[in-house]
Amino acid sequence: SLLLQKTKELCQKERELSLQVIHHIREINIRKVHLEMGYGSLFDFVVKELKYSSGAAYRRIEAMRLLEELPQMEEKVKSGEMSLTNLSLIQTTAKELKKNNLSVSKTDKLELLEKVSCKSTREAEIVVAQFKEEKTGTVPIERITKLRITKDLDKKITLLKAHSHILSGSSDQEFFEKALDMLIQKMKIQDSDIAI
Length: 196
What we know:
Elements: H1 2-31, H2 33-36, H3 42-48, H4 54-69, H5 74-79, H6 84-99, H7 106-116, H8 121-136, E1 138-140, E2 148-150, H9 151-163, H10 172-187
Antiparallel strand pairs: 1-2
Helix pairs in contact: 1-4, 3-4, 4-6, 6-7, 6-8
């Protein structure tokens, strides 16, 4: 239909405009325009001067940084195969790992980008979580808080389960509930002390 065709054309223009905005933000960063205007950071400038939400500003800045390193990804953004959110996710992951003294090479980034191409944000998060697991040696436990268990902590859990009649044979969820109950009891914390 004409409506669908027009919508697709507008989506294409929106992606192209998003890239142009990112190019302009990059140039502003290079020329330090935001500093001349009194902003303490590029992020503050994008939020306060360009009126993006903090999440949208962060995604654009992180996508800009990744596109500086891997400009060949621009075509995928234009075509809709790659979202700014997924670009930002890869860049953020690389930064997090770097803070933990783990390097993420250009090749790693390109492989990750290929894996998250045409994927939803949730699917991309799963790909990235698996990559982080390989890099850090952690075992994820599905929880709202996205708790991650290191190999050392996993050994301690196994040891506790093996040497405690209360904790042995427990599922992971039961283990954490019982272990936390025991800790709360030992610390003499009352339900009324816990702010909900």
